[in-house]
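Thread: "does anyone have the structure for this chain?"

Original post by V.I.:
We have the sequence but no experimental structure in hand. Need at least a predicted one for the grant figures.
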Amino acid sequence: MSTTTTAYQLPGPPNLAQSLRTRRTGAIPGLLYRPAVPADPEKAAEIDHRLESWARDLDLFPASWSGDFSGFQFGRAVVLQHPGALDLDRLTAAGKFLLAENIVDSCYCEEDEGRGGSRRGLGGPLIIAQSALDPFHGVPEVEAEWREGIQADGPLRSYYFALEDYATFATPSQTSRFVYDIARLHLGYLGEAAWMETKYVPRVWEYLVMRQFNNFRPCLTLVDAVDGYELPEQVYARPEIQRITALASNATTLVNDLYSFTKELASDPTHLNLPQVIAANERIGLKAAYLKSVEIHNRIMEAFEEEAALLSATSPLVERYAQGLAAWVSGNHEWHSTNTHRYHLPDYW
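Reply from O.Q.:
Generated one for you, tokens below.
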């Protein structure tokens, strides 16, 4: 794929001054979503306590991040996303992965967060990060050096110990599935970083392909393990199951594009997101592009719901898995639409 800079530029940000004054919050008008199961605040608080204790014990991030930690609402996120979780330990494991993925993203990928991230040369750190989940095997003395390297870095420790905890109850195939999906995520990080570094504005279909890799799929493919059962590998690998998993992951990732739109543009006006890419490709305003992005999300959601319903009729186990995906999508939307610490909407309605 060419990385030649396009002849057009990304449009400027919306009227952020007005948006910041009005602080419009709540659900995006016209967005297709299903209500989430309400989160038990005591359960969410317990998960937050466990996660922050885990992060502090492992020295995963500096004390200055404490405000960011509480504002993110990790505990509430996983309680909303996994209403059928078997127990608090499994919810905590899901939260550890969510926390670890955000630490890796913030520390390695996000230049605008001031935490050392860099798009240039990102492949090096990410291949080492992948090894924290997919261990190196070689001569003993090199394995020892690898282990020392993993233990010396907070983001790497977060991956390593999160997977170690998850593997205590997940089956080997569920664990392998997650490791594979994190590799997909890292590939998406690299694609986005390359485009940002070269100032390439992708075509809409190219952007959506990238977001199918750089998305929430690793979190969604935990749903059966967190709920206390396994969708067998031979079923999970079927193309139609892979398709509904991808559709659910893509829909919920576009929710992130839409809710984080003003936040991202305020910190980096060149940040790639679906409205920006549509506006640049179709030479339309950001408001029209944003509303068109809502339509694209809705069509993906409709496809997921229709195809998941058809597959659910074929097997109670598939139905349970599809319901877990749908619950994650609903819970994630609820978390985005109510997290006023992180998100507010553009003044487009």
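V.I.: this helps a lot. Residues 1-8, 15-22 have pLDDT under 50 and may be disordered.
O.Q.: and The longest helix spans residues 172-198.
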